[in-house]
Fold this sequence. Notes:
The protein has 521 residues and is mainly α. Helices cover 47% and strands 4% of the residues. The chain is built from 20 helices and 8 strands. It has helices spanning 5-18, 24-29, 41-53, 56-70, 90-115, 122-143, 154-157, 167-184, 204-220, 227-240, 264-272, 281-289, 295-298, 373-385, 393-406, 419-428, 436-447, 452-462, 490-494, 496-504; strands spanning 74-76, 146-147, 164-165, 250-252, 277-279, 299-300, 355-356, 368-371. Strands 1-5 form a two-stranded antiparallel ribbon. Strands 2-3 form a two-stranded antiparallel sheet. Strands 4-8 form a two-stranded antiparallel sheet. α3 packs antiparallel against α5, α4 packs across α11 and α14 (373-385) runs antiparallel to α15 (393-406). The two termini are 42 Å apart.
Amino acid sequence: xxxxxxxxxxxxxxxxxxxxxxxxxxxxxxxxxxxxxxxxxxxxxxxxxxxxxxxxxxxxxxxxxxxxxxxxxxxxxxxxxxxxxxxxxxxxxxxxxxxxxxxxxxxxxxxxxxxxxxxxxxxxxxxxxxxxxxxxxxxxxxxxxxxxxxxxxxxxxxxxxxxxxxxxxxxxxxxxxxxxxxxxxxxxxxxxxxxxxxxxxxxxxxxxxxxxxxxxxxxxxxxxxxxxxxxxxxxxxxxxxxxxxxxxxxxxxxxxxxxxxxxxxxxxxxxxxxxxxxxxxxxxxxxxxxxxxxxxxxxxxxxxxxxxxxxxxxxxxxxxxxxxxxxxxxxxxxxxxxxxxxxxxxxxxxxxxxxxxxxxxxxxxxxxxxxxxxxxxxxxxxxxxxxxxxxxxxxxxxxxxxxxxxxxxxxxxxxxxxxxxxxxxxxxxxxxxxxxxxxxxxxxxxxxxxxxxxxxxxxxxxxxxxxxxxxxxxxxxxxxxxxxxxxxxxxxxxxxxxxxxxxxxxxxxxxxxxxxxxxxx
Length: 521
């Protein structure tokens, strides 16, 4: 579903005017910055979706520099790509928080306050509740305990210094919100969002499926900490009705330009930081080792990665599968033993390593996948393997892998990938019940390429795929993949009491090694 340039542009203009502050005190207490009269709250809903899908500011710092390299989808020799070597940058850690609290969180909070008591906006209100769940799920899974119940309420209720809710409390409320909102949606009621809903156009049936599929994601998050509750919510999701095919995928469509309406991953990888990263050796080896038909749509080898804005004649590279070469993580260009030229099988030039494919994932107008049928089926395969639900884990697995492969067509794969290719891949790489958890979550890792927040989060939950961790000098995790992002340093001085209380709940304090509630050892 594609929406006009005017909708995205107006949404971004609305949120720029509305949400221009950063710190919580300013965000929550400046009524002069929030014009009550004349605001189109439908556009404010659109802006919340745009920011949730990601802009280059936080996608660059949290999504690519950190998550994509920590989970070894990408690798980098650049010192500021901290995730590759588990080093620390306070501003990059805080980027998602700094971008989404004054934008996505604030916008969706105002939308909910406006729609809540308007019977004509009932469906819009419940869709906004579901959207709010998605926004906060990402935030809490990146940071742990966060402002939730009081977040964004400064203008509405005068809460200038919101408390940090525990992640456990947040999760229980997220389940409740999904269930209540999905149950309340009425296909016979008015669709007042229409094109302002940049994901489903206000389609109630699609949002119901989204809510229950999202419930599966949140249910599996509890596999280590509270499997009984996780199982209950996964079963509730199946009762409610989850995605049934790729046509249900939640996607944010983007525009072929370099504004915040563009695909943020493509904007960074092709225009803003094209020479900084390559596809990771771990990822390429996984795809090549199984003759994965997705490889040629994921990676390319290009002699001239760096592009200028507006340059349509850039080097798209060579996508031939046999020519793809992944770069190992944990190297630099400092002339020491960690210099990339000392890496095994050094190809002689960084440009001989694969980069992200410009035909698909790195296009400016490539869609952002927010939640997919493939992900849901793979998680249901795990739930079945764990005995949480009925059904055959292999059946769910096969459907999930097939859907993930065919999903490439929604990215513009050319030539289009076929069902026979997906079937052949499954025949050559069959489900093995003895290796179920590793297989399922390795496929999830592949399926969430360029949804790097989710890829990192599921890795922390599941422990898969098995990665060769990096023990680079000056790393802050003792050579272990980080477990969370740290809070903005400004929180210690602005929201001091609430920040200190939250930090005291972590065994190791506000560190990248501190584990959040569902991430028990």
